[in-house]
Amino acid sequence: MASSPFLSKPTISFSSSVSTSLPWRPSLSSTAFRANPRRRTLTVQSKIREIFMPALSSTMTEGKIVSWIKSEGDVLSKGESVVVVESDKADMDVETFYDGILAAIVVGEGETAPVGAAIGILAETEAELDEAKAKAKAADSGASKPEASAVTPTPPPATATPAPAIAQPATSAAPAGPRKTVATPFAKKLAKQHKVDIATVVGTGPFGRITPADVEAAAGIEPKKTVAAVPTPSAAAPAKSAASSAPALPLLPGSTVVPFTTMQAAVSKNMMESLSVPTFRVGYPVNSDAIDAMYDKVKRKGVTMTALLAKAVAMALAKHPVVNASCKDGKSFYYNSSINIAVAVAIDGGLITPVLQDADKVDLYLLSQKWKELVEKARSKQLQPHEYNSGTFTLSNLGMFGVDRFDAILPPGQGAIMAVGASKPTVVADADGFFSVKSKMLVNVTADHRIVYGADLAAFLQTFAKIVENPESLTM
């Protein structure tokens, strides 16, 4: 992705951003317009655009400002990088789609904002700078007022964590002056039904959003939550004490609270989604003497063991396409047209899976070269979205750490993931009862049981083992 559309379509507010003085007079007749058609031209005297937090990936819900490349007052040209945003996977330069002046920065460096929120204000000319700065100040004060009001209540005596301050009950302090009314569709419907002026309702939802409960409260309707209070005091007491004691657990002395980074939050979200997928696991021992010998020959040419394994997996998937399939809605599945091997890489502060696209068709040496480039980009947080979110099968290798076996968690939207352990000497017996020592590695595959069955996975592992035990085809 060469550029990210972080600037919205030019949403111009005709009450503030566009001059209301039109070049024609209402009293002129239509014949006057025909006589002088130039007077019909609408001239926009000011354009003030909001710079929005871009959605840099399909899973991104919020972004963090790593740094502003430009400062307030700088003149911007179309296509010029303005800000560096940290998404859930990478840091990306965001370019502007318009010429103008960066009038104000709303979200500073190190701060986060949800996707679609205004992070800066862009003015077209110097004449609009004051108006743009006033708009930015109004937006900034509007966003900070709920936070200020949330700090005023007395803090809980037991803990010093910031969590209780986030979940404060609704306060009735309405912001002074005009404000933008944001309400859910159902809340607007209830407001019309109960004849409530929604502009006077104070929202308690995220970012001051008006919820149906807020409208019902303004209409004087009792909340329909009395069911929880029906049980007898003996039954309600334990539940109440358990609920109140859960968030009040004190920290151990010397402990510190470390919030998730954007990447860690994305990994956490994906892992929680994985819990909804019915999975099963199959382990398979593979003789690794031949592939170890091949690795000793080709590593001097820049080939890594990861590239060898990814190539072997891709060739096995070509013969068992159901293991490369995907199920996302729980109602159907589809065969992927490409075999894209995502390989798990641990980086500072998280985990990412760069993707080797069309791994079954790419030459082994080119595949290894591409892998090294992806690892460098991953560790510098410069991966593009298509380089980490297009995987159809995932490979996780901990063999280099001496781990002999482990299970991997299935990424959402994929059919299977393979966990590869270390190659270790193992005593084996042949058909005649003679013992020998051979190197073996144990691979465990976690699969989505909605689309992949035990026989499918067993057949795939047999094919993979044959390729690894006879790796000459990997270099062809």
UniProtKB/TrEMBL annotation:
<dbReference type="Pfam" id="PF02817">
    <property type="entry name" value="E3_binding"/>
</dbReference>
<feature type="domain" description="Lipoyl-binding">
    <location>
        <begin position="48"/>
        <end position="126"/>
    </location>
</feature>
<keyword id="KW-0808">Transferase</keyword>
<dbReference type="InterPro" id="IPR003016">
    <property type="entry name" value="2-oxoA_DH_lipoyl-BS"/>
</dbReference>
<dbReference type="GO" id="GO:0004742">
    <property type="term" value="F:dihydrolipoyllysine-residue acetyltransferase activity"/>
</dbReference>
<comment type="similarity">
    <text>Belongs to the 2-oxoacid dehydrogenase family.</text>
</comment>
<dbReference type="InterPro" id="IPR004167">
    <property type="entry name" value="PSBD"/>
</dbReference>
<feature type="region of interest" description="Disordered">
    <location>
        <begin position="1"/>
        <end position="24"/>
    </location>
</feature>
<protein>
    <recommendedName>
        <fullName>Dihydrolipoamide acetyltransferase component of pyruvate dehydrogenase complex</fullName>
        <ecNumber>2.3.1.-</ecNumber>
    </recommendedName>
</protein>
<dbReference type="InterPro" id="IPR001078">
    <property type="entry name" value="2-oxoacid_DH_actylTfrase"/>
</dbReference>
<feature type="domain" description="Peripheral subunit-binding (PSBD)">
    <location>
        <begin position="182"/>
        <end position="219"/>
    </location>
</feature>
<dbReference type="InterPro" id="IPR011053">
    <property type="entry name" value="Single_hybrid_motif"/>
</dbReference>
<dbReference type="GO" id="GO:0009534">
    <property type="term" value="C:chloroplast thylakoid"/>
</dbReference>
<dbReference type="InterPro" id="IPR036625">
    <property type="entry name" value="E3-bd_dom_sf"/>
</dbReference>
<dbReference type="GO" id="GO:0006086">
    <property type="term" value="P:pyruvate decarboxylation to acetyl-CoA"/>
</dbReference>
<keyword id="KW-0809">Transit peptide</keyword>
<feature type="compositionally biased region" description="Low complexity">
    <location>
        <begin position="8"/>
        <end position="21"/>
    </location>
</feature>
<dbReference type="InterPro" id="IPR000089">
    <property type="entry name" value="Biotin_lipoyl"/>
</dbReference>
<feature type="compositionally biased region" description="Low complexity">
    <location>
        <begin position="160"/>
        <end position="178"/>
    </location>
</feature>
<dbReference type="Pfam" id="PF00198">
    <property type="entry name" value="2-oxoacid_dh"/>
</dbReference>
<dbReference type="InterPro" id="IPR023213">
    <property type="entry name" value="CAT-like_dom_sf"/>
</dbReference>
<feature type="compositionally biased region" description="Low complexity">
    <location>
        <begin position="139"/>
        <end position="152"/>
    </location>
</feature>
<keyword id="KW-0450">Lipoyl</keyword>
<dbReference type="Pfam" id="PF00364">
    <property type="entry name" value="Biotin_lipoyl"/>
</dbReference>
<dbReference type="GO" id="GO:0045254">
    <property type="term" value="C:pyruvate dehydrogenase complex"/>
</dbReference>
<dbReference type="GO" id="GO:0009941">
    <property type="term" value="C:chloroplast envelope"/>
</dbReference>
<feature type="region of interest" description="Disordered">
    <location>
        <begin position="133"/>
        <end position="180"/>
    </location>
</feature>
<dbReference type="InterPro" id="IPR045257">
    <property type="entry name" value="E2/Pdx1"/>
</dbReference>
<keyword id="KW-0012">Acyltransferase</keyword>
